[in-house]
Design goal:
Layout (H helix, E strand, L loop, with lengths): L1 H20 L45 E2 L2 H4 L6 E8 L4 E5 L11 H13 L6 E6 L2 E3 L4 E3 L2 E5 L6 H13 L4 E3 L2 E3 L11 H12 L6 H13 L13 E2 L3 E3 L7 E7 L3 H11 L2 H11 L2 H12 L6 E2 L10 E2 L1 H17 L31 E8 L6 E10 L2 E10 L3 H18 L13 H5 L3 E3 L5 E3 L3
Parallel strand pairs: 6-8, 7-9, 8-10, 9-11
Antiparallel strand pairs: 1-3, 2-3, 2-17, 4-7, 4-12, 5-6, 12-18, 13-14, 15-16, 16-17, 18-19
Helix pairs in contact: 3-7, 3-8, 3-9, 3-10, 4-5, 4-6
């Protein structure tokens, strides 16, 4: 009934406008909004280089004010050079300004990367790190005579997972390795871009006598959050006599076991909550880079390339997206998640609840848990950028929103976003929390597991 009331309010507002001015939507859609001219201070000259995607000429848009049937929204002072689009789930436009102009979306690009990852792998996919050897185990001495090989592309592989490998090797009767540690060139540990550095870190982490305090701390936290505290006897420990190498691995090796990452949906939750640039770029690279991410968006979300162009998978650098394109992406992402019985809250931060970029925003008693979205910040790029896009929940239902602000102070932009989103909710009956079963990110990240060639599995959902 609340949605019907909202539609009725918008339609009545439009009928009033049509009856007096004959306004008709130029794009052929039902004109659920009216043009309201807002008196603004003079806008500074556009920054050279800010242009529509695919155009060779600088874009110099002139603001026409906020189009909306809510006078309170039309009267809001929008800082900087901005694009705004807010729609109901069935496509009614609540507010719109410069929705067809390309802006720098900053880390909102990560929403596109997350969308492409889900399209490619699905939410339950796990990244594999496989462990091999070319030697044999002398169980009387606990020695593996041969090399240990590690191959995997898990972008989340960290200290606790290295200790987990030592634990599994110990279970196989291996406490020392009379040979080398060999990793493939796609192996990464602790967000290191260098496989050589990652290999050295892994060797130190396997060896309890050389293991850092940070590694021990993360291992203990992993045991607690995975529910395995008290089930692991002793201290995992594997020592090497050989060196560390990065190279391709032979095909005639014995497969010992495989470490499987936490599911992709949990990885995306961490990426979007903390806006992790390394993980975003790493995930994008697994898909083929920013161009591949963009193509997946173009082909699957119905977004025209002229409205969506990215140079990075994280949002760093120069990227150009229109609010219209971002809205299409949000709708397509929401539809894909629904097929898996998931919502935005399963991969994006819930404001005022989840740790990360939205932890301290929309956290008061009235608005806590009513906003789910992705932030973006570039303090210096395009003369200052701040963005926010996602879903707001109100007593009149859920709404999708995109706010792109640039050419100004990002802190001022954030304050405006907080104010404007709350203002929108106020016009729609007030904020309403989304249904959300909170799980800490630590618990989500502790869902990794070990599998053996014979089908045995340890960890994960246990």
């Amino acid at each position: 009934m609340l949605k019907i009331a909202l539609r009725s309010k918008l339609i009545l507002a439009v009928f009033a406008v049509i009856g007096t001015s004959g306004v008709v939507a130029q794009d052929g859609r039902t004109p659920f909004m009216q043009d309201i001219t807002v008196v603004r201070e003079p806008v500074a000259s556009p920054t050279p280089g800010v242009q529509r995607t695919g155009s060779s000429a600088p874009t110099m848009p002139v603001s026409t004010g906020m189009r909306t049937s809510f006078p309170a929204l039309a009267a809001a002072r929008v800082p900087g050079y901005s694009g705004i689009l807010i729609e109901s789930m069935d496509g009614l436009i609540v507010a719109e300004s410069n929705a067809d102009i390309a802006f720098n979306p900053a880390s909102n690009v990560k929403v596109a990367t997350a969308y492409a990852v889900l399209k490619t792998f699905g939410p339950e996919f796990r990244f594999l790190t496989s462990i091999y050897t070319d030697g044999g185990i002398d169980r009387s001495t606990g020695t593996l005579h041969g090399n240990l090989y590690v191959s995997g592309k898990d972008p989340m592989f960290a200290f606790q997972h290295g200790v987990a490998l030592a634990h599994e090797l110990n279970k196989l009767g291996i406490r020392s390795i009379a040979g080398d540690l060999v990793v493939t060139d796609n192996f990464s540990m602790n967000y290191a871009a260098s496989p050589g550095v990652s290999a050295q870190t892994l060797q130190l982490t396997l060896d309890a006598s050389r293991r850092t305090a940070a590694a021990t701390k993360q291992w203990n936290e992993f045991l607690m959050h995975s529910g395995r505290w008290g089930t692991v006897a002793g201290t995992p420990d594997v020592r090497f006599t050989g060196a560390v190498y990065v190279q391709s691995i032979p095909s005639n090796l014995q497969h010992l076991f495989t470490h499987e990452s936490t599911p992709v949906k949990e990885i995306l939750k961490a990426v979007l909550c903390f806006s992790n640039n390394f993980l975003s770029e790493r995930l994008g690279a697994l898909l083929g880079g920013p161009y591949a991410v963009a193509r997946i968006v173009h082909l699957n979300a119905g977004v025209d390339p002229s409205e969506f162009s990215i140079q990075t998978a994280s949002g760093l650098g120069i990227n150009r997206v229109t609010p219209n394109a971002m809205m299409k992406l949000l709708r397509s992402l929401r539809s894909d998640l629904a097929r898996y019985k998931l919502t935005f809250a399963d991969i994006m931060p819930v404001a005022g609840v989840d740790r990360g970029t939205l932890e301290g925003r929309f956290g008061d008693t009235f608005s806590r848990a009513s906003v789910v979205g992705k932030t973006g910040t570039l303090p210096r790029g395009d003369s200052g950028v701040s963005t926010l896009a996602g879903e707001i929940n109100t007593k009149s239902g859920r709404f999708l929103f995109v706010i792109f602000n640039q050419r100004g102070n990002f802190q001022q932009f954030r304050a405006f976003q907080n104010y404007f989103v709350s203002l929108v909710q106020g016009q729609l009956g007030g904020a309403e929390p989304v249904p959300y079963n909170f799980m800490s990110l630590d618990a989500r990240m502790a869902r990794s597991r070990i599998t053996y060639p014979d089908g045995r599995s340890f960890g994960g959902e246990e």
